[in-house]
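Customer escalation, tier 2.

The customer says the design service returned an amino acid string that "doesn't look like it belongs to this structure." They asked us to rerun it and document both sides in this ticket. The original structure tokens are below, unchanged.
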């Protein structure tokens, strides 16, 4: 296979020899020019001076004498002119989106030499089209007529009126915008192209120091480029060489041929390239259900081609990996086999996809959501945590930042003051509240400077092992690539700051960030390397006019290759067609040409595509693969990479009580440091394995900051409020009048609720007024508290004894060893000579049990857990010396049942169906309960009985360990 550029180099060297240096060669991009120089040096048998290598853009700018205008500056200039001409009160924020569209449209108008005055005219009479647009073809006039006919005789819908209002000012806007740029010696690309062509068509001779200009490998020419080439052809200093050897590219039924016949007819070659022998191309189409999977498969393909030997530099140079989706660049770089020592990355990495871009996004969200309470700035935890956990920030002071994150999480801090966050110099800069765009750009510059300074402190140098010609040690904490990311972002922000200062346009921080994001979306960080050595990794556009023997093309999915991306334009489709401006059909033909030209001279082509259907991604292979298969009947091997995923049922999990586990359990025996609570016993009865994870091993769910009040916190707040309200009456008689007075004392209730929120939810001593959702929950708690007080009023007079009573006890097992027990009794009072042990429950449940045995039955689905808990409290309370012989009565206040009538907190023993007995005195059940509790604890501390999964499965619904046990 002889590459197209090699053939052109041979042809010109044969004719010109060393004199080829007097010529200029124009290529689609600079990379193509480098390959041409390489082939020219191979063809020449002696050293020679290189001809001038240019791109068509280089040539236009050289002839124009104008500088390319900065896009941000152009947006500000355009906005200024628009406001002045239209008298609009539109802000820059509102203008930004369609201002960018106008820049693209103006560029297209000039590149395609469209008549702007005619385009932007308001055609009030359809008959005018025939007279005014006679320079257009019938098809173009029909397209224009079809658009304007929808406006007349009536164009009175709000959208049409709005369109016409803007449309009428566009020509004046276009003219003044061009004049303003020209006065500054600047221009956008289309404007420069148009001015050069128009000056040449007026007869002005361009100052070209070349004997001949040779255009090589071009295809999709704009009207300005066509007319430029025609002018050079007219002056007999231009020659043209097209890579149209593929029969698929020249096929009239293929969109790739859109420009072929016109280019060959208008710009024929003066010399004929030698006929080529057709290469037999092996094509394999590989479906992989993952983007990263495609990158990993690149490793497999390249390893097969390398075999065991190292791939030679010439072999590598003839091999290319093509990435239509640039986001796969880093995964592909990580998938290159060791046998390939040299890699050349032709494409750039998008700045918008770098870690620094994600950090800046987090910072913007942080600053946008700053809240001021009593003039003190507070940052929202959902914005703070992503910034602190970002690897750039975390790596600067891991211990300090990790402890700060832990403090925020453990103390449930929803809004954090900047003083609490200023733990390091970098954090001090980061968490400085800013307002206004000027301050924000200065702030970003300071952050990026401080970040770069922090991350490169004490960084070592790169040391090179010259024998292996490889980097052997890299001790930098921040890689060179990431330093480059930060530098590029820094220069972008700095440039925007300068431009905005000159423009003096006011904008919101949101607009500034949108503008910054749009700018960074267009910036790619170039990789520096030796382009003529090693495996070539490139984007689709970088392949223009280049040929490779072996190709791997990733992302061969419809919508990615070819791209499904319609350009945003203010000019409607029919008017674009009518005035010869590019449309999506034009884009389709460009992609088709790139694909069919690229595979023409390759001997082996691997086309990889993603088979997943996800969101807008359909998993459909590219139309080009279907064309090859059905239209051209090219033999292809179809492969599907599948991953073996085991779907077998997870075997039952059991944890035997080894010696180390028994040692942990010994901590609960008499003399140990721990005690078993009623909730821990309930956990065991729900699921012994969950008991092992949570109680024995002490595994906890990772703490998170919670904005909403979870049910357990809701219960804690309610307990705290009730404790505070009743505390002044500890040991005293409570009357109905007293409870009524408390219910009516709004300030007392509000204060108690706010203090309970501060201690239980906000975990702070600072008491503040409740707002938003917390206020609503506070009002719910107020209703519950008032209802409890109302229900208690019906029991008066009673003696309030205490709340939140911590109680400890011992129970003997069957082997006579003793186990420590503990509990917190929500409330103890005395009603009608009976001591009530009350447990508040924020959820719902039952107060009825069928038997003591059922309370400890692991297989019972609707086990009365709350009854077991309150019975354990009664048993422990009855064993206290001061309570011997007293009547103890259990009671459960289910908060959700408070408003139901009749409300009865008493516990009932169901004797038979439809018949229940109230537990008036716990002493009648104490012995049976002790036996049941002992049996349960015997099982827990029996080394022969392992911790197994729950027999019912009901406890699995909300279990945090279900991912581990797999039940």
């Amino acid at each position: 296979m002889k590459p197209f550029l090699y053939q052109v180099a041979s042809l010109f060297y044969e004719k010109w020899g060393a004199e080829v240096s007097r010529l200029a060669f124009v290529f689609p991009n600079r990379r193509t020019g480098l390959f041409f120089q390489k082939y020219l040096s191979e063809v020449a048998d002696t050293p020679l001076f290189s001809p001038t290598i240019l791109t068509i853009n280089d040539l236009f700018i050289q002839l124009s004498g104008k500088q390319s205008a900065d896009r941000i500056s152009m947006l500000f200039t355009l906005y200024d002119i628009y406001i002045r001409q239209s008298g609009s009160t539109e802000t820059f924020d509102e203008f930004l989106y369609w201002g960018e569209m106008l820049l693209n449209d103006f560029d297209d108008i000039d590149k395609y030499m469209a008549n702007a005055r005619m385009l932007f005219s308001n055609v009030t009479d359809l008959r005018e089209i025939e007279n005014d647009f006679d320079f257009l073809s019938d098809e173009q006039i029909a397209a224009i007529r079809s658009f304007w006919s929808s406006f007349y005789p009536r164009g009175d819908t709000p959208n049409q009126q709005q369109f016409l209002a803007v449309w009428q000012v566009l020509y004046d806007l276009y003219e003044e915008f061009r004049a303003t740029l020209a006065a500054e010696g600047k221009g956008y690309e289309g404007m420069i192209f148009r001015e050069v062509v128009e000056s040449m068509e007026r007869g002005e001779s361009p100052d070209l120091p070349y004997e001949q200009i040779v255009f090589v490998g071009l295809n999709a020419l704009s009207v300005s480029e066509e007319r430029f080439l025609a002018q050079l052809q007219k002056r007999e200093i231009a020659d043209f060489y097209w890579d149209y050897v593929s029969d698929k590219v020249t096929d009239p039924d293929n969109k790739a041929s859109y420009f072929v016949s016109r280019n060959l007819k208008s710009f024929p070659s003066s010399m004929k390239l030698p006929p080529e022998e057709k290469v037999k191309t092996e094509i394999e189409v590989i479906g992989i259900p993952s983007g990263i999977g495609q990158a990993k498969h690149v490793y497999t393909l390249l390893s097969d081609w390398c075999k065991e030997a190292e791939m030679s530099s010439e072999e590598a140079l003839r091999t290319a990996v093509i990435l239509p989706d640039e986001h796969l660049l880093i995964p592909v770089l990580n998938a290159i086999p060791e046998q390939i020592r040299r890699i050349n990355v032709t494409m750039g990495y998008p700045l918008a996809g770098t870690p620094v871009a994600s950090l800046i996004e987090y910072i913007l969200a942080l600053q946008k959501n700053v809240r001021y309470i009593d003039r003190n700035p507070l940052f929202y935890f959902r914005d703070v945590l992503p910034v602190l956990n970002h690897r750039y920030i975390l790596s600067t002071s891991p211990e300090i930042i990790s402890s700060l994150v832990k403090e925020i999480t453990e103390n449930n801090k929803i809004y954090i003051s900047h003083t609490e966050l200023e733990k390091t110099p970098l954090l001090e800069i980061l968490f400085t509240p800013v307002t206004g765009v000027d301050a924000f750009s200065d702030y970003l510059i300071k952050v990026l400077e401080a970040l770069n300074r922090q991350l490169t402190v004490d960084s070592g140098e790169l040391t090179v092992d010259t024998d292996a010609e490889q980097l052997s040690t890299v001790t930098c904490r921040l890689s060179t690539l990431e330093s480059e990311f930060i530098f590029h972002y820094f220069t972008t922000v700095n440039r925007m700051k300068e431009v905005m200062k000159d423009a003096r346009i006011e904008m919101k921080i949101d607009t500034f960030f949108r503008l910054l994001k749009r700018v960074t979306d267009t910036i790619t960080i170039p990789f520096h390397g030796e382009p003529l050595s090693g495996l070539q990794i490139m984007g689709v556009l970088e392949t223009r006019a280049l040929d490779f023997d072996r190709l791997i093309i990733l992302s061969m999915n419809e919508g990615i290759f070819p791209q499904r991306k319609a350009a945003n334009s203010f000019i409607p489709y029919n008017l674009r067609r009518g005035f010869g401006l590019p449309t999506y059909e034009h884009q389709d033909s460009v992609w088709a040409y790139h694909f069919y030209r690229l595979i023409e001279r390759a001997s082996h082509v691997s086309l990889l595509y993603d088979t997943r259907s996800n969101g807008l991604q359909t998993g459909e292979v590219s139309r080009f693969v279907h064309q090859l298969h059905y239209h051209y009947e090219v033999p292809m091997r179809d492969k599907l990479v599948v991953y073996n995923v085991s779907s077998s049922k997870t075997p039952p999990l059991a944890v035997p009580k080894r010696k180390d586990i028994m040692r942990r359990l010994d901590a609960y025996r008499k003399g140990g440091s721990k005690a078993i609570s009623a909730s821990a016993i309930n956990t065991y009865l729900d699921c012994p394995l969950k008991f092992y994870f949570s109680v024995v091993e002490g595994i906890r769910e990772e703490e998170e900051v919670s904005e909403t009040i979870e049910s357990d916190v809701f219960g804690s707040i309610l307990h705290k409020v009730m404790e505070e309200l009743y505390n002044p009456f500890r040991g005293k008689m409570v009357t109905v009048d007293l409870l009524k007075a408390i219910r009516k004392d709004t300030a007392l209730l509000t204060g108690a609720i706010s203090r309970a929120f501060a201690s239980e939810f906000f975990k702070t001593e600072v008491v503040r007024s409740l707002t938003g959702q917390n206020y609503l929950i506070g009002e719910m708690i107020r209703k519950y508290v008032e209802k409890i007080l109302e229900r208690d009023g019906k029991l008066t007079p009673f003696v309030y004894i205490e709340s939140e009573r911590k109680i400890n006890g011992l129970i003997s097992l069957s082997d006579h060893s003793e186990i420590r027990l503990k509990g917190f009794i929500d409330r103890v009072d005395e009603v009608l000579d009976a001591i009530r042990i009350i447990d508040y429950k924020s959820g719902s449940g039952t107060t009825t049990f069928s038997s003591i045995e059922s309370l400890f039955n692991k297989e019972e689905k609707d086990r009365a857990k709350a009854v077991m808990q309150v019975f354990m409290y009664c048993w422990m309370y009855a064993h206290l010396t001061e309570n011997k012989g007293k009547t103890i009565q259990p009671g459960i206040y289910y908060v959700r049942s408070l408003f139901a009538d009749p409300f009865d907190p008493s516990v009932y023993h169901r004797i038979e169906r439809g018949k229940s007995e109230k537990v008036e005195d716990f002493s009648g059940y104490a012995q049976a309960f002790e036996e049941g509790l002992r049996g349960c604890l015997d099982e827990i501390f029996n080394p022969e009985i392992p911790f197994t999964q729950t027999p019912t499965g009901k406890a699995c619904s909300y279990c945090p360990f279900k991912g581990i046990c797999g039940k």
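Tier 2 assessment: The sequence is consistent with the input. Residues 158-183 form the longest helix (26 residues). The two ends are 61 Å apart (CA to CA). Sent an explanation to the customer and offered a walkthrough call.
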